[in-house]
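Pair request: fold both.
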Amino acid sequence: MAITLAGCDSDRAVIWQAHVRSPNGHYLASATATQQSGPGNAALYSEVKLSQGDADEGCEILSFSHHGVYELKGGAVTMTWVGNTTLHVEYVPSATVDFQAIKCAGVTIELEPRSR
């Protein structure tokens, strides 16, 4: 019996991104919307990461699934710092929240659907 495994290269494209630094410059919130295509693995999703300093890769604090690119008009999320340690994020109401951290590296993450 022979088993053959075949792998497919991922076909991903970042279609939107945004960055916002905390008022004291210590934290950076970065958001990306990525479209992935391929047989059986097509997806459209957004992630928000929080990092400390430019060399820090950051940790994922939010992730969302989207139904179509039309949802991303105006951006996948809107990020605003409320002081130095609270990040307020508004997301597209039709998106599905797949993961939500409420605190990371001393920063509180507030999340709510964007008003239309």
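--- second member of the pair ---
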Amino acid sequence: MILGRQFFTFVLLLSFICGFAQQQDELQGFQGFSTPKPMQNAGILKVGVTPVFDGQIAFTGELRVTYERKIAKRQSITIGASYDFPNFILLAISSRYGGRGGGRHGGGGYGGGSSFNSFSIEGGRITLGYRYYPLKKLEGLKGLYVGPYLSYNAVNIRQKDISANYEVVNYADATGIVGYQFIFPRRFTLDLFGGLGYKNNFVAHYNSYANEVNNQYTVKIQALDNVKIALQLNFGYAF
């Protein structure tokens, strides 16, 4: 009987302590009887500036729009879309050029001594990513972040005089990035990130005379041919 009373007293005391601690937490989090504020910076709409002048694929520009949405504490997803078009460098070329060039963009096939004005260039790019903000303590999508993202870019290059002949330049990559996002007082944002990943680029040629498609994959001469280096700068608005 005495043991039962002691157990009952212990349970009652424990319930009182838990209830008191809960009330203290509620009082500490109480902000008055004002209207609750919505979660700040749950979404950010961004645009890229440099891709307009120099896109991922040689001699193209990109009109890129990216949307980032918070999905949980310290976590978000990003969805992006781009429209590819002949960039300003290509439009400024008036003389004939014997190929698409190389550099960081890789190889290709159109040109062959023809004027660039004889080609139609258009396409699009989609991206999907995930971000984790390890050091973030406040609400909103700001600060240091890490995460992966996937990208697929395809550009259709067609000869205007022989519309049945065309090629499609395909750029696919998966990249791990590290970045930092600034959110300024008027909700304007600056997003900068860089990273490394894997790329698989190839060109599909369609010959109307032979009625066949030839896939020309990236020539893997060195071990770093499939290494993807990413660097982006985006401006946006948080809401």
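Observation on the second member. DSSP finds two helices and nine strands in the chain.
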